[in-house]
Design brief:
Layout lengths: L1 E2 L5 E6 L2 H11 L5 H24 L13 H6 L4 E4 L3 E8 L5 E3 L10 E7 L5 E8 L8 E3 L9 H20 L3 E3 H6 L10 E2 H4 L11 E2 L2 E2 L4 H13 L6 H9 L2 H11 L3 H14 L8 E6 L9 E9 L5 E9 L10 E6 L4 E6 L6 E8 L4 E8 L2 E8 L1
Parallel strand pairs: 4-6, 9-20
Antiparallel strand pairs: 1-2, 2-7, 3-4, 5-8, 6-7, 10-13, 11-12, 13-14, 14-15, 15-18, 16-17, 16-19, 19-20
Helix pairs in contact: 1-2, 7-8, 7-9, 9-10
């Protein structure tokens, strides 16, 4: 190991004949000179990182890496290396005198880390000069002086393995969150990292569909809420004028509860609950919401899972699962919310599109039902288990 002028740990790998033979083998498959050069440099960078992992005693699988796939090479700029039981690291070549690490958009989400590999002019040496856990927040442009020192990398790997082990252990012996205790507002109802939204992230940081959008709280005018209640109530087939008059005499919170109990329309019930949670979140009978930060298990993205539950007049429970970002940014493209029943059968799968600030799924369940929600992003995933 040596130190550069910024005192950043560097690991130097000699690019042997084997490295150049491999790079030439792949680059020759591409006719366009710019693509052939890109593949050649990417292969050298991956070779250098693979050699470093061997020094650390970390098992890799080059065949599982897209960088070894000729078809993938043809269509995207890829320099990934698969690490067994963890996922893919992106190994980006950095040319001499470069000031930044540049990562193409196709590699922003599907990685558990990014390693900068500086190639010398003669392509005889590859210097691993630092790493970063993610790049999407910087649009793929990371100044080299902002990279984490390579001295921190073994500890970073250890943390990722520990997180992976925790996920496997959780899935083998899951801890079920008791949503009925949320409804009862029992003491210590929130467990296993869950928090009430008011205590955990605050209204300003969590986006609730309907009443909240993209993390932005809409200021409610109670006159508008009352007008909405009257309009919706009047549209219900079992509404009576006498009941409508009494409804107008109720305070807003009580009127919203009465509307939830009266209507059979799930969207109206959720909208009424969203209004109520803004006006009076602790109102008895208003259901409850919890939030959990999942970022540490999902490549460092500030992803949160929000679960809301309502008691319905027919004795069933309405459940809403929502995934959003605590920093108000858009969800990573392709992030999935996968809902399974107790037997592991798929109930629903929802994927984030470009510029989605949240994804969600709503359904009804009976007391005693169990289900799980899996949030997945490329090779990273986390599952949460619930009992109604």
């Amino acid at each position: 190991m040596e130190k550069n002028k910024n005192q950043m740990s560097i690991h130097t790998v000699v690019l042997s004949l084997e490295a150049h033979s491999l790079a030439q083998k792949y680059s020759k498959q591409h006719q366009r000179p710019e693509k052939a050069k890109q593949v050649y440099l990417n292969t050298l960078a991956v070779y250098g990182v693979n050699f470093y992992f061997q020094v650390l005693g970390v098992e890799t699988d080059y065949d599982k890496s897209n960088s070894s796939n000729l078809l993938t090479q043809r269509f995207i700029d890829v320099a990934d290396l698969y690490v067994k039981d963890l996922g893919k690291f992106e190994c980006r070549p950095v040319l001499p005198n470069a000031k930044v690490l540049e990562v193409p958009p196709e590699a922003w989400d599907d990685r558990i880390g990014y390693i900068a590999v500086q190639l010398d002019q003669s392509l005889r040496e590859a210097k691993l000069i630092g790493f970063t856990p993610k790049v999407v927040d910087k649009k793929g442009i990371i100044p080299l002086n902002e990279l984490h020192s390579l001295e921190e990398f073994p500890e970073y790997l250890s943390q990722k393995r520990q997180q992976s082990t925790q996920v496997v252990a959780q899935q083998a012996s899951p801890q079920f969150v008791n949503l009925e205790r949320w409804l009862e507002r029992a003491s210590n109802a929130f467990q296993y990292g869950w928090q009430a939204i008011e205590e955990g992230f605050g209204y300003q940081r969590v986006g609730i569909a309907g009443a909240l959008r993209g993390g932005q709280l809409e200021m409610l005018d109670l006159k508008d809420v009352k007008r909405w209640i009257a309009q919706v109530y009047a549209s219900q087939p079992n509404a009576k004028q006498s009941q409508g008059n009494s409804l107008a005499e109720l305070d807003v919170s009580s009127a919203l509860i009465q509307l939830i109990e009266l209507t059979q329309d799930a969207e109206i019930q959720w909208q009424a609950a969203d209004f109520l949670w803004q006006i009076n979140p602790n109102y008895l009978g208003a259901g409850n919401r919890g939030v959990k930060d999942l970022g540490i298990q999902l490549a460092g993205y500030p992803v949160t899972l929000i679960v809301a539950i309502l008691a319905l007049p027919n004795g069933r429970r309405a459940v809403r699962l929502q995934v959003s970002m605590s920093d108000r940014s858009y969800l990573p493209f392709g992030l999935k919310l996968i809902v399974l029943d107790e037997a592991g059968n798929l109930i629903q799968e929802v994927s984030a599109r470009s510029k989605d600030d949240y994804i969600q799924f709503k359904f009804t369940a009976s007391p005693g039902d169990r289900f799980s929600a899996k949030i997945a992003l490329a090779d990273a995933s986390i599952a949460e288990f619930f009992a109604v």
